[in-house]
Amino acid sequence: MVGFKATDVPPTATVKFLGAGTAACIADLITFPLDTAKVRLQIQGERQGPVQAAASAQYRGVLGTILTMVRTEGPRSLYSGLVAGLQRQMSFASVRIGLYDSVKQFYTKGSEHAGIGSRLLAGSTTGALAVAVAQPTDVVKVRFQAQARAGAARRYQSTVEAYKTIAREEGFRGLWKGTSPNVARNAIVNCAELVTYDLIKDTLLKAHLMTDDLPCHFTSAFGAGFCTTVIASPVDVVKTRYMNSALGQYSSAGHCALTMLQKEGPQAFYKGFMPSFLRLGSWNVVMFVTYEQLKRALMAARASREAPF
């Protein structure tokens, strides 16, 4: 078996909470350029019709977007908003992933046999709760990723300035802009991501196709990433557009979605699909594999510390 062995004692809620946040930060560090490329592709053409947008598109494809950004803005542009992104993951992933098992056990009243309904309910709950905690960090991250590095023309020069400027110019509500589509997105993402991972892993183990180690975690995470991208992409595009919009551009998330449909057609809801899949697929693999190993490492360290000499 590769990696740390599973311990006899299940990981505590604290271990899961800290492990999830740390694993998500590691995954973000590795996949952040793909996320930035996804944001740029999603907001491209939002003030134009589909014909004009296609003709004047600055970014084409994942690799093209990354290369264009490096050429015109420098390599650092790929990590614009990273600080807010890591702040988001430590608060966001810790809640939505780290508390998932505990909430699932709450809904099943401690039973080890959790049905699909209980899993979906737990995923929706922790996803919505995470947004309530981490929404301002998500707004700042998206704003940073969307802006081009053009010196004085940039909207924000630092993460702290972004928080202050948004609060000053748009009020407290500005930091919570897009909460509704983000709650919807993350309830969907959490259900698709965690429940799919949970189900694939359980199926592989119960059918004795794999053992509880790295290949099983990798396969489950990759499947979860693909399912999540297909299901959540439309809501993700609307969330990105709405969060990045100027004050008064859209009256609501619904208005944003309707405007996209009228101006750019239904295909607009799957803009940036490939970078979304590349990012979510790779992010899921890195995050879940790291998370599983961190849980085991932390529990092994705890057991060795508590073991008598």
From TrEMBL:
It is found in: Mitochondrion inner membrane. Solcar repeats lie at residues 11-106, 114-203, 212-297. One of its GO terms (biological process) is mitochondrial transmembrane transport. GO terms for cellular component: mitochondrial inner membrane. Pfam families: Mito_carr. InterPro entries: MCP, MCP_dom_sf, MCP_transmembrane, Mito_Metabolite_Transporter. Its main location: mitochondrion. It is a multi-pass membrane protein. Keywords: Membrane, Mitochondrion, Mitochondrion inner membrane, Repeat, Transmembrane, Transmembrane helix, Transport. GO terms for molecular function: antiporter activity; chloride transmembrane transporter activity; GDP binding; L-aspartate transmembrane transporter activity; malate transmembrane transporter activity; oxaloacetate transmembrane transporter activity; phosphate ion uniporter activity; protein homodimerization activity. Transmembrane segments: none annotated. Belongs to the mitochondrial carrier (TC 2.A.29) family. This is Uncoupling protein 2. It comes from Ovis aries.
